Amino acid sequence: MPTIVNVQNLRKAYEGGFEALRSVDLEIQQGEILALLGPNGAGKTTLISTICGITVPTSGAISVGGHDTQTEFRAARNLIGLVPQEINLEPFETVMNTVRFSRGLFGKPRNDAYLEQILKKLSLHDKKDSKIMMLSGGMKRRVLIAKALSHEPRVLFLDEPTAGVDVELRKDMWDVVADLKADGVTIILTTHYIEEAEAIADRVGVISKGEILLVQDKAEMMAQMGQKQLVIDLADTITDVPAALAAYSLTIGGDDRSLIYTYDTKGERTGITTLLNDLQKAGLSMTDMQTHQSSLEDIFVGLVKETA
Questions:
Q1: How many other CB atoms are found less than 10 A from the CB of residue 8?
Q2: Could you tell me which of 197, 214, 198 has the C-alpha nearest to residue 206?
Q3: Could you read off the pLDDT of 231-290 as tens digits, one per residue?
Q4: CA distances from 261 to 76, 142, 228, 258, 266 (A)
């Protein structure tokens, strides 16, 4: 797939020397869903704001759809929809007029049928004539999403779009995301709900302290970096791992009645068979066992810890 967003050697520094972004390189492919993960203060919002032209970069280059965001700002911005974290809406305006106004700002001709379709997908249609001030917090966030989609963007940025909202909105949001992806829209989202990134993203990027640590296909990342844990339930409590089992680097479970064995999924041999044999020789009686695959959250936490 062709690249629709291209970020090269991007740096953003503020007065006093703080670097919010450090030499960021990022290529986003047309029609993909990229989840950008990182702790608070990692630079996620700064990166999005800079690509969207809200924040001026200190150095580096950004293009969207082949348009430089500095020299061809209007052409680049017309391709972008942005759902910000903050809810900033005119309280006395109606939902429909709010969305209609956003479409007009981009010079698009009036198309209420299209806007009503968006409102229906976001479960807002019955509120289209309601004033913003009468809506709940979750409903206001839906309006932000409708505004971002009003001018039919080809690249959609979702900055923590479901933070603090109800499960129903999340479901509606991801249904809309699936439809947009099917239409070829590129979606970049930041989220604290890592299970959502794991469920819908094609690729995952990890950012920490203003630097991109990794951008990789989600399935490849989990295959290459994931580990499995074998949890062995014991018949009796245990306080120390027997010396005969030291080579397996076992840890004792929180209930003192289980042993945890971590192994690499890429290894030619797991070592489980010999472990179980040595477990019996050590006089430990097993009652049950189960495996646990490392999640995207486990991998993310491990990467961030390495840079702490």
A1: 13
A2: 214
A3: 899 988 888 998 889 888 898 988 888 998 887 766 667 788 888 889 889 889 888 888
A4: 51, 45, 8, 10, 15
